[in-house]
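_Per-residue structure_
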Amino acid sequence: MADEPRVADGTRAADEAKATDQTETEAKDGTKAEAEDEREAEDEPERAPQAAARGGWEDKAAGALAFLRRRITGEYEVDEFGFDPDLNDNVLMGVLRPLYDKYFRVEVSGIENVPADGGALIVANHSGTVPVDALMTQVALLDHHPAGRHLRMLAADLVFTLPFVGELSRKMGHTLACNPDAERLLRGGEVVAVFPEGFKGVGKPFSQRYRLQRFGRGGFVSAALRTGVPIIPVSIVGAEEIYPKIADLKPLARLIGLPYFPITPTFPLLGPLGLVPLPTKWHIAFGEPIPTSGYDPGAADDPMLVFDLTDQVRETIQDTLYRLLLQRRSVFF
Protein backbone atom coordinates (compact mmCIF):
# COMPACT_ATOMS: atom_id res chain seq x y z
CA MET A 1 0.00 0.00 0.00
CA ALA A 2 2.90 2.29 0.67
CA ASP A 3 4.11 1.94 -2.92
CA GLU A 4 0.81 2.92 -4.57
CA PRO A 5 1.28 6.69 -4.31
CA ARG A 6 4.65 6.40 -6.06
CA VAL A 7 3.07 4.40 -8.93
CA ALA A 8 0.39 7.04 -9.29
CA ASP A 9 2.97 9.80 -9.29
CA GLY A 10 5.00 7.99 -11.97
CA THR A 11 1.92 7.53 -14.14
CA ARG A 12 1.04 11.20 -13.70
CA ALA A 13 4.60 12.23 -14.66
CA ALA A 14 4.50 10.01 -17.75
CA ASP A 15 1.17 11.54 -18.80
CA GLU A 16 2.54 15.04 -18.31
CA ALA A 17 5.66 14.23 -20.37
CA LYS A 18 3.49 12.76 -23.13
CA ALA A 19 1.29 15.88 -23.14
CA THR A 20 4.39 18.10 -23.33
CA ASP A 21 5.73 16.11 -26.29
CA GLN A 22 2.35 16.32 -28.02
CA THR A 23 2.24 20.11 -27.48
CA GLU A 24 5.76 20.51 -28.89
CA THR A 25 4.84 18.34 -31.92
CA GLU A 26 1.72 20.39 -32.56
CA ALA A 27 3.74 23.59 -32.30
CA LYS A 28 6.28 22.27 -34.80
CA ASP A 29 3.49 21.16 -37.15
CA GLY A 30 1.87 24.59 -36.79
CA THR A 31 5.15 26.36 -37.57
CA LYS A 32 5.68 24.11 -40.59
CA ALA A 33 2.14 24.78 -41.82
CA GLU A 34 2.64 28.53 -41.41
CA ALA A 35 5.89 28.35 -43.38
CA GLU A 36 4.13 26.42 -46.16
CA ASP A 37 1.32 28.99 -46.19
CA GLU A 38 3.88 31.79 -46.47
CA ARG A 39 5.58 30.05 -49.41
CA GLU A 40 2.23 29.56 -51.13
CA ALA A 41 1.38 33.21 -50.55
CA GLU A 42 4.69 34.24 -52.13
CA ASP A 43 3.96 32.09 -55.20
CA GLU A 44 0.37 33.32 -55.50
CA PRO A 45 1.04 36.52 -57.53
CA GLU A 46 2.69 34.46 -60.29
CA ARG A 47 -0.18 32.02 -60.49
CA ALA A 48 -2.96 34.55 -60.05
CA PRO A 49 -3.60 35.52 -63.70
CA GLN A 50 -3.77 31.91 -64.93
CA ALA A 51 -5.82 30.75 -61.93
CA ALA A 52 -8.32 33.59 -62.31
CA ALA A 53 -8.59 33.06 -66.04
CA ARG A 54 -9.25 29.31 -65.74
CA GLY A 55 -11.24 29.27 -62.46
CA GLY A 56 -14.92 29.73 -61.69
CA TRP A 57 -16.95 32.84 -62.40
CA GLU A 58 -16.11 34.34 -59.00
CA ASP A 59 -12.37 34.05 -59.70
CA LYS A 60 -12.87 35.50 -63.17
CA ALA A 61 -14.90 38.42 -61.84
CA ALA A 62 -12.32 39.17 -59.17
CA GLY A 63 -9.53 38.92 -61.73
CA ALA A 64 -11.36 41.25 -64.12
CA LEU A 65 -11.91 43.88 -61.42
CA ALA A 66 -8.27 43.69 -60.35
CA PHE A 67 -7.18 44.05 -63.97
CA LEU A 68 -9.36 47.13 -64.50
CA ARG A 69 -7.99 48.70 -61.33
CA ARG A 70 -4.41 48.19 -62.52
CA ARG A 71 -5.17 49.66 -65.95
CA ILE A 72 -6.83 52.72 -64.41
CA THR A 73 -4.09 53.34 -61.85
CA GLY A 74 -1.25 52.49 -64.22
CA GLU A 75 0.07 49.72 -61.96
CA TYR A 76 1.42 47.56 -64.79
CA GLU A 77 4.70 47.38 -66.68
CA VAL A 78 5.67 47.23 -70.35
CA ASP A 79 9.22 46.15 -71.22
CA GLU A 80 11.58 47.63 -73.80
CA PHE A 81 10.13 45.41 -76.54
CA GLY A 82 6.57 46.57 -75.87
CA PHE A 83 5.53 43.39 -74.04
CA ASP A 84 2.58 43.98 -71.69
CA PRO A 85 2.31 40.81 -69.56
CA ASP A 86 -0.71 42.09 -67.61
CA LEU A 87 -2.73 42.63 -70.80
CA ASN A 88 -1.39 39.45 -72.39
CA ASP A 89 -2.20 37.12 -69.49
CA ASN A 90 -5.59 38.56 -68.57
CA VAL A 91 -7.08 39.50 -71.95
CA LEU A 92 -5.21 38.31 -75.03
CA MET A 93 -4.58 34.78 -73.81
CA GLY A 94 -8.20 34.66 -72.65
CA VAL A 95 -9.28 35.10 -76.27
CA LEU A 96 -7.03 32.22 -77.40
CA ARG A 97 -7.80 29.76 -74.59
CA PRO A 98 -11.18 28.59 -75.96
CA LEU A 99 -9.49 27.79 -79.29
CA TYR A 100 -6.75 25.92 -77.45
CA ASP A 101 -8.95 24.01 -75.00
CA LYS A 102 -12.25 23.46 -76.81
CA TYR A 103 -11.73 23.92 -80.54
CA PHE A 104 -8.30 22.40 -81.29
CA ARG A 105 -8.24 20.36 -78.03
CA VAL A 106 -4.47 20.70 -77.88
CA GLU A 107 -2.55 17.83 -76.30
CA VAL A 108 0.91 18.63 -74.93
CA SER A 109 3.83 16.33 -74.17
CA GLY A 110 7.37 16.93 -72.95
CA ILE A 111 6.68 20.44 -71.67
CA GLU A 112 8.91 19.67 -68.66
CA ASN A 113 11.84 19.86 -71.11
CA VAL A 114 11.48 23.64 -71.01
CA PRO A 115 13.52 24.91 -68.03
CA ALA A 116 11.65 26.52 -65.14
CA ASP A 117 13.93 29.56 -65.28
CA GLY A 118 16.67 31.01 -67.45
CA GLY A 119 16.85 31.39 -71.20
CA ALA A 120 15.85 28.72 -73.72
CA LEU A 121 15.32 28.69 -77.48
CA ILE A 122 12.30 26.85 -78.85
CA VAL A 123 12.52 25.83 -82.51
CA ALA A 124 9.31 24.56 -84.13
CA ASN A 125 7.83 23.60 -87.47
CA HIS A 126 5.52 26.17 -89.05
CA SER A 127 2.33 25.50 -91.01
CA GLY A 128 -1.37 26.14 -91.44
CA THR A 129 -1.57 29.05 -93.96
CA VAL A 130 -2.27 31.38 -91.01
CA PRO A 131 0.33 31.12 -88.18
CA VAL A 132 -2.07 29.98 -85.48
CA ASP A 133 0.46 27.34 -84.40
CA ALA A 134 2.70 29.99 -82.86
CA LEU A 135 -0.15 31.34 -80.73
CA MET A 136 -1.20 27.89 -79.51
CA THR A 137 2.40 27.18 -78.47
CA GLN A 138 2.35 30.43 -76.50
CA VAL A 139 -0.79 29.34 -74.62
CA ALA A 140 0.76 25.93 -73.90
CA LEU A 141 3.83 27.47 -72.19
CA LEU A 142 1.82 29.95 -70.13
CA ASP A 143 -0.98 27.65 -68.98
CA HIS A 144 0.63 24.21 -68.79
CA HIS A 145 4.27 24.73 -67.87
CA PRO A 146 4.73 24.39 -64.09
CA ALA A 147 6.39 27.82 -64.00
CA GLY A 148 3.81 29.44 -66.32
CA ARG A 149 6.47 30.75 -68.69
CA HIS A 150 5.94 33.47 -71.27
CA LEU A 151 6.96 32.68 -74.85
CA ARG A 152 8.69 35.51 -76.68
CA MET A 153 8.28 34.83 -80.39
CA LEU A 154 10.44 36.11 -83.23
CA ALA A 155 8.18 37.25 -86.07
CA ALA A 156 8.74 38.38 -89.65
CA ASP A 157 8.98 42.08 -90.53
CA LEU A 158 5.61 41.86 -92.30
CA VAL A 159 3.82 41.26 -88.99
CA PHE A 160 4.91 44.63 -87.61
CA THR A 161 3.93 46.55 -90.74
CA LEU A 162 0.31 45.44 -90.59
CA PRO A 163 -2.09 47.88 -88.91
CA PHE A 164 -3.30 46.79 -85.46
CA VAL A 165 -1.58 43.38 -85.83
CA GLY A 166 1.89 44.84 -85.28
CA GLU A 167 0.95 46.68 -82.10
CA LEU A 168 -0.94 43.66 -80.78
CA SER A 169 2.04 41.41 -81.46
CA ARG A 170 4.31 43.70 -79.49
CA LYS A 171 1.94 43.61 -76.51
CA MET A 172 1.92 39.80 -76.70
CA GLY A 173 5.71 39.74 -76.39
CA HIS A 174 6.67 39.19 -80.03
CA THR A 175 9.59 40.98 -81.65
CA LEU A 176 11.54 41.09 -84.91
CA ALA A 177 13.21 37.90 -86.08
CA CYS A 178 16.78 39.17 -85.81
CA ASN A 179 19.76 37.91 -83.83
CA PRO A 180 20.35 41.06 -81.74
CA ASP A 181 16.79 40.99 -80.35
CA ALA A 182 16.91 37.21 -79.87
CA GLU A 183 20.20 37.38 -77.98
CA ARG A 184 19.02 40.21 -75.71
CA LEU A 185 15.94 38.22 -74.75
CA LEU A 186 17.87 35.00 -74.20
CA ARG A 187 20.47 36.73 -72.04
CA GLY A 188 17.59 38.20 -70.05
CA GLY A 189 16.41 34.68 -69.18
CA GLU A 190 13.41 34.56 -71.56
CA VAL A 191 12.02 31.59 -73.51
CA VAL A 192 12.28 32.60 -77.16
CA ALA A 193 10.56 30.84 -80.07
CA VAL A 194 11.70 30.78 -83.68
CA PHE A 195 10.04 29.16 -86.70
CA PRO A 196 12.93 28.78 -89.18
CA GLU A 197 10.74 27.74 -92.13
CA GLY A 198 9.11 31.17 -92.13
CA PHE A 199 6.60 31.85 -94.88
CA LYS A 200 7.90 28.84 -96.82
CA GLY A 201 6.51 26.63 -94.08
CA VAL A 202 3.31 28.36 -93.09
CA GLY A 203 2.33 28.95 -96.74
CA LYS A 204 3.31 25.63 -98.30
CA PRO A 205 0.74 23.65 -100.34
CA PHE A 206 -1.38 21.05 -98.59
CA SER A 207 0.26 18.36 -100.72
CA GLN A 208 3.55 19.04 -98.87
CA ARG A 209 2.08 18.91 -95.36
CA TYR A 210 4.41 17.81 -92.58
CA ARG A 211 7.45 18.02 -94.84
CA LEU A 212 9.83 20.54 -93.33
CA GLN A 213 11.09 23.28 -95.61
CA ARG A 214 14.61 24.69 -95.60
CA PHE A 215 15.76 26.08 -92.23
CA GLY A 216 17.77 28.99 -93.61
CA ARG A 217 21.35 29.66 -92.53
CA GLY A 218 20.99 28.64 -88.91
CA GLY A 219 20.88 32.08 -87.37
CA PHE A 220 18.91 30.70 -84.42
CA VAL A 221 21.74 28.26 -83.64
CA SER A 222 24.24 31.12 -83.59
CA ALA A 223 22.05 33.02 -81.11
CA ALA A 224 21.83 29.94 -78.86
CA LEU A 225 25.60 29.36 -79.00
CA ARG A 226 26.40 32.99 -78.14
CA THR A 227 24.09 32.95 -75.12
CA GLY A 228 24.68 29.33 -74.04
CA VAL A 229 20.99 28.44 -73.80
CA PRO A 230 19.51 25.03 -74.66
CA ILE A 231 17.71 24.50 -77.97
CA ILE A 232 14.37 22.72 -77.60
CA PRO A 233 12.93 21.14 -80.78
CA VAL A 234 9.13 21.34 -80.93
CA SER A 235 6.89 19.37 -83.29
CA ILE A 236 3.31 20.50 -83.94
CA VAL A 237 0.73 18.16 -85.49
CA GLY A 238 -2.75 19.37 -86.40
CA ALA A 239 -2.02 22.85 -87.71
CA GLU A 240 -1.40 21.71 -91.29
CA GLU A 241 -5.08 20.89 -91.81
CA ILE A 242 -6.82 23.97 -90.41
CA TYR A 243 -6.64 25.83 -93.75
CA PRO A 244 -5.68 23.31 -96.47
CA LYS A 245 -3.97 25.44 -99.13
CA ILE A 246 -4.72 24.03 -102.59
CA ALA A 247 -3.69 27.02 -104.73
CA ASP A 248 -1.99 30.41 -104.57
CA LEU A 249 -3.03 33.60 -106.35
CA LYS A 250 0.49 35.00 -106.67
CA PRO A 251 -0.40 38.09 -108.78
CA LEU A 252 -2.94 39.18 -106.17
CA ALA A 253 -0.48 38.45 -103.38
CA ARG A 254 2.15 40.69 -104.99
CA LEU A 255 -0.44 43.41 -105.53
CA ILE A 256 -1.36 43.62 -101.84
CA GLY A 257 2.15 42.95 -100.55
CA LEU A 258 1.66 39.46 -99.11
CA PRO A 259 3.95 36.45 -99.53
CA TYR A 260 1.01 34.39 -100.85
CA PHE A 261 -2.76 34.56 -101.26
CA PRO A 262 -4.18 31.16 -100.37
CA ILE A 263 -7.05 29.30 -101.98
CA THR A 264 -8.56 26.64 -99.72
CA PRO A 265 -11.61 24.37 -100.11
CA THR A 266 -13.66 26.95 -98.18
CA PHE A 267 -11.96 30.29 -99.00
CA PRO A 268 -12.88 32.43 -100.88
CA LEU A 269 -15.73 30.17 -102.01
CA LEU A 270 -17.69 30.56 -98.75
CA GLY A 271 -16.70 34.19 -98.17
CA PRO A 272 -16.14 35.15 -94.50
CA LEU A 273 -17.29 31.68 -93.41
CA GLY A 274 -14.27 30.29 -95.23
CA LEU A 275 -12.01 32.07 -92.74
CA VAL A 276 -13.13 29.73 -89.94
CA PRO A 277 -10.37 27.13 -89.38
CA LEU A 278 -11.23 23.44 -89.44
CA PRO A 279 -11.51 21.93 -85.91
CA THR A 280 -8.53 19.59 -86.10
CA LYS A 281 -7.02 17.75 -83.10
CA TRP A 282 -3.58 19.08 -82.17
CA HIS A 283 -0.51 17.68 -80.47
CA ILE A 284 2.46 19.85 -79.45
CA ALA A 285 5.53 17.81 -78.48
CA PHE A 286 8.46 19.48 -76.73
CA GLY A 287 11.62 17.47 -77.40
CA GLU A 288 14.68 16.94 -75.23
CA PRO A 289 16.95 20.01 -74.96
CA ILE A 290 20.08 20.22 -77.08
CA PRO A 291 22.70 21.91 -74.83
CA THR A 292 24.99 24.64 -76.17
CA SER A 293 26.71 25.81 -72.98
CA GLY A 294 29.69 23.48 -73.45
CA TYR A 295 30.95 25.13 -76.64
CA ASP A 296 33.72 27.73 -76.91
CA PRO A 297 32.74 31.42 -77.14
CA GLY A 298 33.74 31.50 -80.81
CA ALA A 299 31.63 28.46 -81.74
CA ALA A 300 28.86 30.67 -83.14
CA ASP A 301 31.24 31.74 -85.92
CA ASP A 302 32.02 28.15 -86.97
CA PRO A 303 29.85 27.53 -90.08
CA MET A 304 30.22 23.75 -89.96
CA LEU A 305 29.15 23.53 -86.33
CA VAL A 306 26.20 25.83 -86.97
CA PHE A 307 25.19 23.72 -89.98
CA ASP A 308 25.48 20.45 -88.03
CA LEU A 309 23.38 21.71 -85.12
CA THR A 310 20.78 23.18 -87.48
CA ASP A 311 20.53 19.86 -89.28
CA GLN A 312 20.24 18.00 -85.96
CA VAL A 313 17.35 20.20 -84.85
CA ARG A 314 15.60 19.85 -88.20
CA GLU A 315 15.93 16.06 -88.26
CA THR A 316 14.68 15.79 -84.68
CA ILE A 317 11.54 17.80 -85.49
CA GLN A 318 10.91 15.87 -88.72
CA ASP A 319 11.34 12.45 -87.08
CA THR A 320 9.00 13.44 -84.25
CA LEU A 321 6.38 14.64 -86.74
CA TYR A 322 6.44 11.28 -88.51
CA ARG A 323 6.15 9.43 -85.20
CA LEU A 324 3.19 11.55 -84.05
CA LEU A 325 1.45 11.09 -87.39
CA LEU A 326 1.78 7.31 -87.10
CA GLN A 327 0.19 7.47 -83.64
CA ARG A 328 -2.65 9.78 -84.72
CA ARG A 329 -6.02 8.06 -85.04
CA SER A 330 -7.76 10.86 -86.95
CA VAL A 331 -7.25 14.43 -88.14
CA PHE A 332 -10.25 15.53 -86.08
CA PHE A 333 -10.30 13.16 -83.08
About this structure: The CA atoms of residues 225 and 295 lie 7 Å apart. The chain has eleven helices and nine strands.
